[in-house]
Amino acid sequence: MKQMIRKKLSLIILAAMLLSLLFNYAVQTRGARRDMLFTSQELFWQIHQILEQNAAETKQIEYDFKESCLVRAKAAAYIVQSRPDIVGHQAEMEKVANLLDVDEFHLFDPDGTLYGGSQPKYFGLNFRSGEQMQFFLPMLSDRSLELCQDITPNTAEQKLMQYAAVWREDGEGIVQIGMTPGRVLDAKKKNELSYIFSLLTADSGAAIYAIDAESYEVLGSTDPDQLGKTAGEIGIDPKKIPTGREGLRATVAGRDSYCAFSFSGPVILVRTRTIDSLYQSVNQDTLLLALYLLLGAVILLFTIFHYLDSYIISGISAVNRKLMTITGGDLDAVVEVRTTPEFAELSGHINSMVRSLLDMTNKLSEILEIARIPIGVYEYNQGMKRVLATSRIADILRLSKGEAEGILADHARFEAVLTEIRRRPVDPERGIYELPGPDRRFVRMESFSREHGTLGIVVDVTEDIAEKQRIEHERDVDQLTGLYNRRAFYRNADPLFSDAGRLGQAVLVMIDSDNLKQVNDRHGHENGDRYLQMIAGLLQSLPAEKKLTARLSGDEFVLLVYGCSSRQELDGAIRRLDLSMKGCSLPLGDGREIPVSFSAGCAFFPEDGNDFHILLKRADDRMYRNKQQSKQNGRI
């Protein structure tokens, strides 16, 4: 047995070492490619930033140069207008050009013909003499124009120049200056790919390329020998270039390489690195790791073999002997193998398991003795499919004998039944739930986790719940009218006013019966009680979806209508209440009828306040005023 274990352990450790090396190599090569892609994206971002910055600088230089040209043109126009005597003196004209630091200085008459300036060789030309000159033709028809031409070859020499022209203030002609745009051309040169790549340095084994996205021509590269070639000629198949940020392995410039790509408008940026340079550190790290793992494997095998001989083999044999004794039925046997902490822990678990089996039998025997009350007890272990339960479980849960046998045979089905009952909570904090069925029955359920098992009780509390509901009804409901009493009304109204979203638009109506004393005196207290019941019936029959009604005292009632979306809806409810009162009368035993009436006062939420007690006071005050006014007018 020991030889077999040694052989298998050696094979397992060597296989694990080999798999670790392969996994480590795969992870490191993947990481090297990922790092290469990441650093390439950073480099591409830097190139984009350089291009964007250079473009912005070039745009600003072009703008500044145009502004400078216009300023010099205006200065030249001012000089000519201030000193008309210099127009015929060529030396003075050239002197003005030097003072303004311009290359050319021209004077045009109102018809657009060049008649003077620092360059006599251009005399006689006009705005129609060439494409470059025609740019200024609109100035002949609109003297408010001040034009500055983009850099363009001039008409006479095809020399790159930038011209600006303005009208003289006296309207006697147009003054034009021309300047060589050296600084602008230098700035534009910085945006050329050849200039950008001249600034970049590539790591050993790496190269950077800029490829035209349409022709796939190499426009720029840190390897000058590849300029002018196509992507296919240097080894990158255009059809295989990924559109995302994935890499591509290819033979570039005759070297096995890994490529990263970035798309920037009409240009594809490519960074390549040879596989040898990319995986150089990976190969070195893998070799070093292999040496460490080999040394560790030798030490580990020696240690494991020694430990197996001294502790494991002897411990397994001792545990097996004890388990055979327990399997034979000797549950009083105790496992005491302590060759290692693990075997000591295993011995404890085995002994605990045996004690648990014995203890479970004792618990069930005791529970069966006290099962004379409406309580059911159950227990099951996760490793045991069947549920051990008292016979009252089936009666309490409304299970037939067949259903109980099927459910108790599988603790998963039993727990599913309990879960279904828990979906009908009555008092979850106390564990009270309602059973499904036509007649209302209630149970209290509790369960306790015991190591790997569950112990629970199910108690029939139907009578307790019914008694509680009866007490709550007597406590909260007025016996004469069937409405809430004062305490119940306050308890239900206070939570509503703490939740403005649920309350919505609301109205609180205080109601006091009219002529109740006369009804009691003339027709007896029995009819007086019926009179109050008629008022309660009016409140209960009011067609409002959300309302609370209560009798606060002898002949004083309150109505809360809430959850409405507008004041108009509330006003409609009040009108319906008033109409129902006007059509209501109390029939007496002798065929006579007496009208039923009451006085009311309203307070609206939130117009009249947000506090429930303040609204109650305002509604009561308004009810009292309405009652006094009715008495003064003789209506009651």
From TrEMBL:
SMART domains for this protein: GGDEF, HAMP
Keyword Lipid metabolism appears in the UniProt entry: no
InterPro entries: DGC-Regulatory_Protein (IPR052163), GGDEF_dom (IPR000160), HAMP_dom (IPR003660), Nucleotide_cyclase (IPR029787), Rev_trsase/Diguanyl_cyclase (IPR043128)
Coiled-coil ranges from the UniProt annotation: none
CDD domains: GGDEF, HAMP
Superkingdom assignment: Bacteria
Keyword Signal: no
NCBIfam families, per the entry: GGDEF
Protein's recorded name: Diguanylate cyclase
Gene source species: Yanshouia hominis
